[in-house]
């Protein structure tokens, strides 16, 4: 009898051991996170691989990012909705991300005198936009309206298909989204007007030379840049002309000469308007004229991989921190969207592009819009 009881006990113990095996085989979350982190370091060639202290610091931030990514994706309700994941910024805190990659559109101050502490560029723009001189150029719409889709507009517009959109740039550590968005849009409008494929233009000429409250890689303002281009009647060099110029002796100083007459089109007119609740005007211009410049709040793009942004993107005017080129739209998609060209390199997002839902001023995309006309 005792042998039977002993056998039963052995069977119970063995059974319990097998029941415990699945739990023991469950991957440890820290180990899995570390595997992902090591892959991340290699993929993006992070410099702290053998720096124990920095490695551990960045790993802790990376683990926080994994939790945030899971939270963002928990709100997905449609297949076309934006999906979030590990990007090259997953080892940065939110504060670091904002400071390093989204501080260039709102430069802190313009140079002041001993008795003047300086004026915020953004604040100055708001003041000027309400002045009598600019009332005809700035549209402030307060009434809430449903998006008007004009019947004659094509349902899909993608200027990349016409060969007039330059490749996605990577601004790196240079805070020049304000210059990139404008120069690339001018590139597109010029190609459309000339009925030819794009010719890349000299970005350095703008970054190094633009005045009117712009500060090169330290930041600038799209509206002020357009104003400077028009007032100075600037003709940009092509990229090939730019590369042929020797600027090494003068470092980042402006040594560029304007392109000769006839080689390139100059700015004729531009707008810097709020089209909140009037996004149909953005669609109309995209369909009939070409790409446009927009200021946005890109704080939530940190983990963006693809799909259409519908949530997690604040629209307040005071939160605008980045500038982009909008190169088209798609109204046939399950979620109608703008096709937005970013400047964080082709490895970010959807080959460097972002899709943002039309009609809701998501990411503040309709707060400051610039249409450009060349002559």
From TrEMBL:
It comes from the Eukaryota. One of its GO terms (molecular function) is cysteine-type peptidase activity. Residues 153-373 form the Peptidase C1A papain C-terminal domain. Belongs to the peptidase C1 family. GO terms for biological process: proteolysis. The chain crosses the membrane at residues 7-25. It comes from Aedes aegypti. Keywords: Disulfide bond, Hydrolase, Membrane, Protease, Thiol protease, Transmembrane, Transmembrane helix, Zymogen. InterPro entries: Papain-like_cys_pep_sf, Pept_cys_AS, Pept_his_AS, Peptidase_C1A, Peptidase_C1A_C, Peptidase_C1A_papain-like, Prot_inhib_I29. It holds the Pfam family Inhibitor_I29. This is Cathepsin O. Residues 37-97 form the Cathepsin propeptide inhibitor domain.
């Amino acid at each position: 009898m005792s042998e039977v009881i002993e056998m039963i006990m052995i069977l119970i113990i063995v059974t319990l051991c097998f029941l415990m095996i699945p739990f023991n085989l469950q991957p440890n979350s820290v180990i899995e996170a570390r595997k992902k982190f090591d892959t991340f370091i290699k993929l993006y060639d992070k410099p702290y691989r053998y720096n124990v202290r920095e490695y551990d610091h960045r790993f802790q931030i990376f683990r926080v990012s994994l939790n945030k990514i899971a939270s963002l994706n928990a709100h997905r309700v449609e297949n076309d909705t934006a999906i979030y994941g590990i990007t090259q910024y997953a080892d940065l805190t939110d504060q670091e991300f904002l400071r390093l990659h989204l501080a260039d559109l709102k430069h802190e101050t313009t140079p002041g005198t001993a008795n003047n502490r300086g004026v915020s560029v953004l604040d100055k723009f708001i003041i000027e936009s309400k002045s009598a001189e600019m009332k005809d150029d700035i549209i402030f719409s307060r009434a809430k309206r449903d998006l008007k889709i004009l019947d004659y507009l094509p349902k899909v517009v993608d200027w990349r298909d016409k060969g007039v959109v330059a490749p996605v740039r990577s601004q790196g550590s240079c805070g020049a989204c304000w210059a990139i968005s404008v120069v690339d849009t001018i590139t597109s409008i010029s190609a459309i007007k000339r009925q030819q494929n794009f010719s890349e233009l000299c970005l350095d000429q703008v970054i190094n030379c633009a005045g009117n409250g712009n500060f090169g890689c330290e930041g600038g303002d799209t509206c002020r840049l357009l104003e400077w281009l028009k007032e100075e009647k600037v003709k940009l060099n092509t990229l090939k002309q730019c590369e042929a110029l020797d600027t090494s002796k003068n470092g980042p100083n402006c040594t560029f000469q304007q392109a000769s007459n006839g080689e390139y089109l100059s700015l004729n007119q531009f707008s810097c308007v709020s089209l909140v609740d009037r996004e149909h005007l953005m669609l109309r211009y995209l369909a009939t004229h070409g790409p446009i410049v927009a200021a946005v709040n890109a704080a939530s793009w940190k983990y963006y991989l693809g799909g259409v942004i519908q949530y997690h993107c604040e629209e307040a005017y005071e939160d605008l921190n980045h500038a982009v080129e909008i190169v088209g739209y798609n109204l046939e998609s399950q979620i109608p969207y703008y096709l937005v060209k970013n400047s964080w390199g082709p490895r970010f997002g959807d080959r460097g592009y972002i899709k943002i839902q039309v009609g809701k001023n998501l990411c503040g995309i309709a707060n400051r819009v610039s249409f450009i006309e060349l002559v």
